[in-house]
Amino acid sequence: MNLNLLKGILILLVIVDHNDFARSIFPGFLLGFAFHVVGFMTIPFLKPAPALDRAMGPYLFRLYWPFVVMTGMMAAAVVVLDHVPAPLQAERWLLTLYSGNSAVLKQTTGMALLWYLPSFVSLVLLRSAIERAGQPVKALTIALLCVAHLFIGPVAPVIRDYLPLGVLPALYVIPLGYLCVWAHRRLFERMPPLLALVLATAVFIPIKYLQIRANLYNEVGFTELASYRAPGALMLNDLESVFGVLMLFQLCRFEFGAFVQACGRYSIQIYLFHAFIGLGIYKAVLRFAPELDVLAQFAISVAATAALTLLLARWLAERRLVQRFLFPRGLHVLLKGESVSAHRMKPLAAKS
Q1: Which of 90, 105, 191, 305 could form a disulfide with 278 if both were Cys (CB 3.0 to 4.6 A apart)?
Q2: Can you give the pTM of this predicted structure?
Q3: Strand, coil or helix: what is 216?
């Protein structure tokens, strides 16, 4: 499987999900759309879990540090633009750094976009701990997480501010990640790629149709999730995620899409900046091409957002100061500037 292709498709789906024109064209599809999020968070399960050793620290640091910098800059902008008192905003920012949940993020920065980074850190740590706990403990832990999966939606609003690093979305996704990779390796990977893709797609389409017909909502980042109270909705939403991911896994067994693979190589940079570029393009399209059909506006805005964000990402990768202060490969690089020019930022799931 081509992981750069997979990450490229997933980051393009993120751009589509955050596109305002898409909301008017595919409202039902996007209402319960979650397999792109689950797909990104399933990538670590495709590789052996990293050891909980000294090498883990720099990897987690380079995932978490862009979150610290970006939320800090956005929180400061809110102080200036919305006249929020600086002490109150500082308190909110510290809570954001601790909890990383979407609700606090949106209150602090005006958007919930960056919740994925702390949740991904939690997922990597939890998965490594599970894999190194021994088979009986691993089986028991996964079973307990499957039970917790039924309750996370209702309890999240009560407890999310008290839990660190966006752990609730990670806890919700872990059983789905194990299921996706198990199904891929035990079933689909043993089939010819085309047959596997056709089968996964043939299962996904009716599941998505039923989800749309039922008008089901599924928001992993905000942990606004179905639960034991609506088992049918929970099952459909989970199946949408699982078979959507399996469909992409089979698609990525083929070789195509140099542009898409380039997007995958710079997925973290695109993730960080696409919303800002996308907003500017959306306003430009409305101003300069208001007469265009909405499908054309959607296509232009998505393509332009992806292309411009990729260009920005590649330009940033060559800037030593940006690499040092926004994408350092460890605390020593941030403090001393060591080895900045020798490295580029690897994709989010490069190690785990």
Answers
A1: 305
A2: 0.92
A3: coil
